[in-house]
Design a protein that fits this description.
The chain has about 170 residues and is mainly alpha-helical. The protein has 5 helices and 3 strands, in the order E-H-H-E-E-H-H-H. One of its GO terms (cellular component) is COP9 signalosome.
Length: about 170
């Protein structure tokens, strides 16, 4: 077991370029909480007693492991990147297909509208009627096609005639 290493506050203040002891103590406390070092502050003797610290130097034996880990990480990044590029390509193809389909549908709707307009105009010309009147006739059913509607219309008319008779009698 190694003996704790004591570092005076003055050395730490100078090396870390801190302005006062308060900043130094705050930094040391944060380092202890982050498990960067283990030790204690000796405020009476103005020093830091270090029991353990994370090493910042790399041993030669670790270089191959670090290199392999970084290469694996780079390969993983490349796989993810190619997957993302493939998804973007698929999404763009799908978007183009949807736009083409939309344009095709809009074109078909426009053609149908033109066909309906031409057909309506031709039918109106054949019967020598106004095209607007022909459209109105197409929308309204011919008389006698729907008996329910016809009977409702006649009943309303009878009611109106009857009320007119009542009105005229009261005068």
């Amino acid at each position: 077991a190694a003996l704790p290493q004591c570092i005076p506050y003055a050395v730490l203040l100078e090396q870390l370029q801190l302005k006062n002891v308060r900043q130094l103590e705050d930094l040391v406390i944060e380092a202890v909480y982050a498990d960067v070092l283990r030790g204690s502050l000796d405020q009476r003797n103005q020093r830091l007693e270090v029991d353990y610290s994370i090493g910042r130097d790399i041993r030669r034996e670790e270089l191959s492991t670090i290199t392999r880990t970084l290469q694996e990480w780079c390969q993983g990044c490349e796989v993810v990147l190619s997957g993302i590029e493939e998804q973007v390509s698929r999404a763009n193809q799908h978007k183009e297909q949807q736009l083409a389909l939309k344009q095709q549908i809009e074109s078909e709707v426009a053609n149908l509208k033109k066909t309906i307009k031409v057909t309506t105009a031709a039918a109106a010309a054949a019967t020598s009627q106004d095209p607007e009147q022909h459209l109105t006739e197409l929308r309204e059913p011919a008389p006698g096609t729907n008996q329910r509607q016809a009977s409702k219309k006649t009943s309303k008319a009878k009611g109106l005639r009857g009320s007119a008779k009542i009105w005229s009698k009261s005068n």
